Amino acid sequence: MEQCELSSEEILRRKNRLRNTRKMICGSLEIKSQDETSIKAVYEEFDLKILFSELHPLMVFCLEKPLDDHKRAFSSKTNLLNLTSVLGSHCVNVYTGLYQYRATHWLDTEITQPRFLEILDRCVIEASRGYRKLAS
Questions:
Q1: Nearest to 58 by CA among 40, 37, 28, 30
Q2: Which alpha helices (DSSP H) does 29-112 contain, by range?
Q3: What is the pLDDT of residues 31-45, one digit of tens each?
């Protein structure tokens, strides 16, 4: 088997894991909208988007929050934030002033609700740290 070839059993296992994870998330958060690849919600003052990839299998957390117009000039601080960020990455869209924190989590095993909320809360802590540094 080549490195990227997956057995039909593994493909099915990954699809089921993803389906179970999405179901658990929808039962844990107040969902604003969703489609085949993502879920949108609000969590701890951030707009939250969770994206999924069946094949890999991955779950990507995107936490977003607008920066005030006069604070957009500090977006160059994001490079410094990324040097000290272990979990994910920080960025600012200089045109819209939207701060974003992204973190990826492998779904190599089933994820429980407490574990999901722990991961999400750790992402929020890091996003809040980044947002405060940029907004100060």
A1: 37
A2: 78-84
A3: 999 999 999 999 999
Residue 110: domain span: 8-135
Instruction: State how far the Cα of 63 lies from the Cα of 25, in Å rounded to an integer.
Output: 15
Whole-number Å distance between alpha carbons of 60 and 52: 6
Q: Any idea which residue has 């936490």 for tokens?
A: 63
In a domain, 50, yes or no: yes
Here the CATH number for the domain that contains residue 36 is 3.30.1460.10
The four Cα atoms 16, 18, 20, 21 give a dihedral, to 10 degrees, of 160
Name the amino acid, one letter, at 53.
S
User: Of 129, 131, 134, 105, which Cα lies nearest the Cα of 118?
Assistant: 105
Domain tally for the chain? 1
5 three-state secondary structure: coil
Task: Identify whether 98 is part of a domain.
Answer: yes
Beta strand residue intervals within the chain, DSSP E: 31-34, 38-43, 46-53, 58-66, 88-93, 98-106
pTM (global) more than 0.85 = yes
Residue 26 pLDDT greater than 80, yes or no: yes
